[in-house]
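Collaborator request, handled under Task 6.
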Amino acid sequence: MKKILCFALAAATMVGCGNKAAYTITGESDKFAGKYAYLQVEKEGALQTVDSVAVAGNAFTLEGVAEQPYSAYVVVKDAGTERPEFYAEIFVEPGQIAIEEVAGERPSFKAVGGALNDAMNAVNDKLAAIEAKMGEGADNAALEAEYYAALYAGIMENGGNILSQNILRNNYYAFEPQQVIDAIASFPAEAQEGFANMKSSAEQALKVMPGNPYIDITEEGTGEQPQCLTPEGKVLTLKSVVENKKNKYVLIDFWASWCGPCMREVPYLVDAYKQFHSKGFEIYGVSFDRAREPWLKAIEEKDLDWLHVSAVNYWDNKARHDYAVNSIPANFLVDCSTGQIIAKGLRGEQVVEKMGELLK
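Structure tokens returned to the collaborator:
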């Protein structure tokens, strides 16, 4: 039995002494025969093995001590291979935990036993029930809203424990900024420190919610190197576009040529631009591309005839931080007469519908 992490090394000597922090993880399935079971944790972006054991027949047992619960994976695979054949997310916590197969078209497994694992399963069951309703003919937008409401409830109903923290860490982009701030505030003080950057981003996002003034991009006259340039290598400030008398509304569109969802939005933006540009609608595209060639190629091939700027530096640009953009596509609609943001996150037909309302 191989152990790598220090706390796991110590655990092996303590399990048999009646330690109240002892855990036992068991699993049994004919799919496990001839393989190895690994308990792994994510550290510095990679999985590291805490414990491993050969499957005996169809079953395995992993034992140790968890003075504090932690999140991990139980992975079952052939020895020496990288790719797991089967795995289950798990909270390692004191007591008996079983890895059980979940009925479905594809083999999958879950951890049963322990307060955190049972709470995780309760959240996942609610999400699965909502997902099962989605599909052709369903009100998928409403179901998606229900899905994320259930996910957020999973945060707030679990008392700031590590399940709550994991849900927020993995899904914060799906919640409103104030929801993120409120969720972090519900966590223990010592845990909140690990969410400082997320909280800062959410606080910044509040500043660009509808009803707030837009924040300029590529300010002129500061003596600093412009953060974003046009395809021709020139400065084009957002302020100059908003204050252009020809423009009544400007859509700030954050995108990238490598972003599939962004490119799926392109036909809708092209349609909106063709219909409303002559009436005062402008688009100010801010690309998160990593190189000029694919950025310029997308502009030309997709007929993106509006205004464009980019730092050509992936996610590392000031505009992204100013607008608290954590996922793309993202957009903000500015009323040029007031300089205020009046809408955000317009997708699909919503751009045409919104401009149809404003530019009748």
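The cover message to the collaborator said: "The longest strand covers residues 46-54. Residues 1-16 have pLDDT under 50 and may be disordered. Please let us know whether this matches your experimental observations."
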